[in-house]
Amino acid sequence: MQKNIYGLLSQASGYISGEEISEKLGISRQAVWKNINKLKEQGFVIESVTNRGYRLIKTPDNLCKLAMDGYLQTDSLGKNAIILDSSPSTNDSLKALASQGAQEGTVIAAREQTKGKGRLGRSWVCKKDESLTFSLLLRPKAAPAQVSAVTPLTGLAVCRAVRDYYGIDCKIKWPNDIIVNNKKLVGILAEMGAEFDAVEYIVLGIGINTDQEEFPKEIADKATSIFIETGKHTDKNRFLAVLLKYLEEEFMSNGECRLSLEGDKLELYKELCATLGRKISFFRGSEKISAFSRDIDSKGELLAEDEKGRIFTVNSGEVTVQGIY
Ligand code: BTN
């Protein structure tokens, strides 16, 4: 019922009377009033004026299913989004659903995470309503070795979305951190469930620092947020819907998940990649190698050359980029 009332309020050009809502939806005026109050509790700002009725002033900034669904413009991703007040880790929650057969495109987003996970076994802190934190389920029909492009493609989609939506000059730190002025704005953690020759699912977890006004001293020189960069708070429902549209563009083709980083996508990825042309270091076994990052291939691998002219393909582990955190 709240969905229908929100629908009428958002379509109305100004006020809509309680009487009109009650007639259109076949419910009592009392029920209209009760449901309007429930919408207000979720963060919708609704003005009520005697003899005129109700007027929608603002949808909530914090995650709320009704508002997110209202903004969604995708064909499949996020169509059955689950929005939680709190989750230990949206990746873990979605992996549990994936093994029970949840469909491709399922999204779990949470207003806070209590045991958020980062890459390489690190933790990822998400205080309530300070970040946009969600996971997306993909089911590509491919072998594990054929899906390595999922990581750079995710970085590409998120980087494009942040640039277009906020006008922030962000870049990709290979393979998929999003950075602004050398500080981290977005972290991405892709996890996979697979048999030897077939992927069962990929869970893509994305954490975007949206509303933090400052960071603890220990990470203040390494992390930034949309608020710090723009001075504005984020409508997380609208931005989640925007992100899902960009992710759909990168991943889906004729309703199928196709993970390919070729042609224009690869070129754009390289243009936006802050790691290319920089001095990097990484470990090969126990040897620490210093090299220049020269190129990225269609598998999303980084090609680096050291001073002796040796070429390395870097495809996992931690790369340190000179000048970036
Ligand atoms: C990193 O840069 O280390 C990756 C951070 C990934 C964080 C996201 S937030 C949503 C999803 N759920 C998690 O527990 N982690 C990812």
How much of the sequence lies in strands comes to 25-35%
Instruction: Describe the main β-sheet briefly.
Output: 7 strands, mixed
Secondary-structure-based class equals alpha+beta
> What sequence of helices (H) and strands (E) makes up the elements?
HHHEEHEHEEHEEEEHHEEHEEEEE
CA-CA gap between termini: 49 Å
Low-pLDDT regions: none
CA radius of gyration is 22 Å
Give the ligands present. Answer: biotin
Q: Helical segment tally?
A: 9
Residue share in helix = 25-40%
Which strand order does the major sheet show?
3-4-5-9-8-7-6
Q: How would you describe the shape?
A: elongated
Question: How many beta-strand runs?
Answer: 16
- The residue-averaged pLDDT reads 95
What would a concise description of this structure say?
The protein is α+β, with helices and mostly antiparallel strands and 325 residues long. The protein is 30% helix and 26% strand.
Present the secondary structure layout.
Layout: H1 2-11, H2 18-25, H3 29-41, E1 45-49, E2 53-58, H4 65-71, E3 82-84, H5 90-99, E4 107-110, E5 131-138, H6 150-166, E6 171-173, E7 177-180, E8 183-194, E9 199-209, H7 226-230, H8 236-251, E10 252-253, E11 256-257, H9 263-272, E12 279-284, E13 287-296, E14 302-305, E15 311-314, E16 320-321
Parallel strand pairs: 3-4
Antiparallel strand pairs: 1-2, 4-5, 5-9, 6-7, 7-8, 8-9, 10-11, 12-13, 12-16, 13-14, 14-15
Helix pairs in contact: 2-3, 4-8, 6-8, 6-9
Bound molecules: biotin.
Notable features of this structure?
325 residues; alpha+beta; elongated; binds biotin; seven-stranded mixed β-sheet
